[in-house]
Structures
1.
Amino acid sequence: KGESVTLNTFKDKYLLIDFWASWCDSCMEEQATLKKLSKKYKKQKFAILGVSLDVEKDKWKETIKNDTLSWEQITDFKGWDNTVAKQFGVNTIPSNVLLDTDGKIIAVNLTKEELTDKLEGIFK
């Protein structure tokens, strides 16, 4: 949408920052799990922020639309030089960071099983 997004946008929520790209098959496989978790915990204090390492705007937009990625998505189209990815030290994808409601990192690079278990523990 061309709007700026900051961590304050997700204040008081558990936030999963998901680093991905449309050309990354492993990333796209993880999206199915993220869709389920997003739907399951949408009414609770959980949000996902997708940070794409794509460089092609059309391919990025097409993937979001075709795969119905309904959560907030951002990119600067700089690929591996993505500003947010650099801030979090991301050097491989898929990769993720889970923040608590105070914005503190509570987990890094959770597998889909670990993420599912972590969220079940948080929201039980």
2.
Amino acid sequence: MNVELENKLIEAFPALFAGRHEPITQNLMIFGCECSDGWYDLIRDFCFLAKLRLDSAEGVNKKKNKGTKSGEYIDYPAPTLKLVQIKEKYGTLRIYYDLIYPESVEELDAQIDIEDLRKRDGRIYEYILALSDYAMQASMRTCEITGKPGKLYTKGWHRTLCLEEAEKANYI
């Protein structure tokens, strides 16, 4: 992906791209988005919806603390998402990530209903996994070069291309 588009993603979602300066043994975002510009919108939509889900988890997690007589509310800390790698594989977009849970959860064990927290975090994980799967499926119908409607071609290299780009690349 060209640097300008990648920088737009980093500016819009700095927390998701926070691992891009980590060692290569921990995070492969040092290589940037290893795909063509046509999938920019799919990546942006994934980032937007994932961030929206995590932000909403932070605000909705207040629950009465059963361990206190005052009935005060506590915040269940939400996980954060760190992108690990974005690339093309077999002609489709792949988005790899880590969900990172705050260490404070362990300190709050006595106050938090851990079963509720696991259910909530399971739903977050399933939602983000579904977003990733959706981006991959949508990339099979989106030209990796232009972003126009396309289809997956399997002549030699697997590529998802619109009709014009497929003709240029001799896939038709």
3.
Amino acid sequence: MKIGFASDHRGYKLKNELINKLKEDNIEVEDYGTYTEESTDYPDYAFKLGENVVAKNVDFGVAICGSGIGISIACNKVKGIRCAKVDSREDVIATRTDNDSNIIAFGEKVPFEKALEYVKAFITT
């Protein structure tokens, strides 16, 4: 299984923490940016992630911005993407089972342990 990640500058730190932990757990990941904390526009990275999920270069995607809302809207502009902004483990499970979502999104203020829980629940549901 391979998971794609994308973020804007506000989600950069959390994205990198998640990527590093998943790599430690031997989960393959692909980082579609951003690669610095310099101000950037989330749609650029949301589109890259969405296009790679649709092309099946990765199995699922995780998108992070300030609130999780903007990047989820941008991801959903890619035909074939079903991205849900999630706020709980229950949201994650529901969007996988009920909506067959292929990307989840959340905000930068989600604590690392919660974000990791969301990602793991997403890829195992």
4.
Amino acid sequence: MSTRRYPLEPLFEKILSPFERFLRQTTAGGVILMVATVLTLVAANSPWGSGFRQFWEQSFRLEFGVHSLEMTLQHWINEGLMAFFFLLVGLELKREVMVGELSSRKDAILPVAGALGGMAVPALIYFLLNPVGPAAAGWGIPMATDIAFAIGILVLLAWRIPRTLIIFLTALAIADDIGAVLVIAFFYTTSLNAIALSVAGVLLTLLVLLNRGGIRRSLPYGILGVLLWIALLKSGVHATIAGILLAFAIPARPVFSPDQFDFCLTKLQRALHERTAHPEMQDHPLSDPRMSVIAQNVESVAKAVQSPQQLMEHAIGNWVTFFIIPLFAFANAGVDFSEIPLGEALAHPVTLGIVLGLVLGKFLGISGAAWLAAKAGIAQLPKGVSWRQFCGVAWLGGIGFTMSLFISELAFHQNPMFMEEAKIGILISSVLAAAIGLAWLFLSSPRRKA
């Protein structure tokens, strides 16, 4: 019998909380998103810029017997792949509301108040500059905060600021996402198809019944989720909302409780001890069926103690962060500055409304609403955070990228020139908000002692 020993340390690395895992993934995603954006701008303004833009306008068709779906490659990304982004957002929202930073009213009031103020004031500023006409449709663009970009920037100062400040920005951005999703659902919906909408309602009811019926396998939810996406695509409601609806139907409770998990592990440990007690024990798994059965049971127990929500988050998280979002940036963030002079764009009410809304409006809305909540005695600053540091985070709230670009596509899909001006406004706002927020936090946060 072999006496080889294998190092176990790599199998038992530092245990991270769900928030720490989310923070690591989001920070890395923010860096990748920045790189993708820069590459997109370079490609759009290169000699091959025309071909780059035309590539995303190619039609792509899927056929199912007599039924077919045909959209441009850009729309497949925006309405198809981005449904997975909204699914991940929905899963994160659900987790935070159930057990995270938004689970208790006391902890949720400050970020929710900040998010509400940070949506209302930017929308008002934009509306004041664009009160009528086609440009007025863009009022929702400056309402959103990009969680990946904002946290990626804030983590650059993690050695200098309280950790609670990062937690607050995460909760704020998540609450902001809720508002952005509601805005898309209620205000950026075209004419409705009652039949398709009814089918979507039936499918959503079936998803809820699966959850209530204790179905924990992912396949039924996946199949109904795809059908829900198709129904919403045909209904006039933006199809990506299917991701949010599916997320809230995914079961959050596992098959096994922690106590049941401990009991099963104890039985498996006994089985391992019994195996080692047999002199005929073989080192090769093919010649030791007892070891194979134990390994299969370990796998089953490990899955049973994880909820379908956790398993789905793990399954799609990296794909969304490192593939779908950068691909979305490649398809949507390109601006040809030779067609729209920067000075002319900055003077346009659409660009100006977005820049003032995201940079100034977010700062005033987040800090003002939070200050009022604190003065009213219904909220308080996170532990160890000063108002000066809080204002720095309020500036970072003006980094609106992914969701802002997404809403601009919905608002100006029939006005390409406005869409380009909106993109310029979003890019300028994100750079300004990041620079001001970083400088403000650096100057307002004394170096922490080691």
